[in-house]
């Protein structure tokens, strides 16, 4: 008898595709039959800006409750939405091979960031993206937006509508009553990984080099979380999870998240981090903190041989300490100061 596994997911298109990939992978790796169950989260219900919600993990709590209640056995999270603290009774048992961690500009008329006209309106709900955009282009008008990926893409003037959606106007922006405006922005910034998972990477007009826009810690990676008791042993699910885990992804993400944890910053903080594990075991790690208004930024880089997750964590912590020593706590709202 195969082991029956219920995979919990949010109802958004992005969550459904991410969960679908993990469910298929688990089914291919061991003798399990997989069923997906939908879980509504606070982040799906609330329509205000993510930045104003405060706290971390708005997309995560409901999935964790469903795991702990036994309504599902596996939860798939976007790693960058996962708070850095441990969840009692739960374990991130696998981090599958990461997608492209870069942020993407999706601009009208194929424009790049450098080519956007003076004062162009660029949408993002992320303080990290807003701060780094302002640091490079102080003239831009950064517009706070939220909603799912398609809602955001439709705000780009002249954007190609997706099947079934209202066409984007080419001239006057229109805000449907109660709905999100359409075609009122010159560009939006989104994670390349989310676009790729939804088959919308065609909308990207620039994939940002990390020295222009450093991604969020964990961006592009997934966390597969289970009840701790299900993570170990020889049951088919535990075996499948071990096979799904990618050590290079895990080491990089552990280091990136250690930066965030040491700065006592959440996913809404203007903190970027990007780690890459080379074949020889050397982890390169890059991190920055940017003033929300873009008037200052700090960036540090390090490299070190890592043989364990603990080594990766130590590298991230040390890099965060360098940022704190250099005054990161005065530059941006972080929990940690020095
Ligand atoms: N906070 C929302 C969120 N969480 C994960 C992704 C994209 C996929 C990923 O980074 O793995 C997104 C959308 C975005 O930032 O564009």
TrEMBL record:
The keyword Transmembrane is annotated on this UniProt entry: no
Kindly give the Gene3D superfamilies that the UniProt entry links to this protein. Periplasmic binding protein-like II, Porphobilinogen deaminase, C-terminal domain
Q: Which GO MF terms does the UniProt record name? A: hydroxymethylbilane synthase activity
> Beyond the main fields, what else does the record say?
The porphobilinogen subunits are added to the dipyrromethane group.
Q: Which PANTHER family match?
A: PORPHOBILINOGEN DEAMINASE
Role summary: Tetrapolymerization of the monopyrrole PBG into the hydroxymethylbilane pre-uroporphyrinogen in several discrete steps.
The entry describes its oligomerization and partners as: Monomer.
State what protein this is by name.
Porphobilinogen deaminase
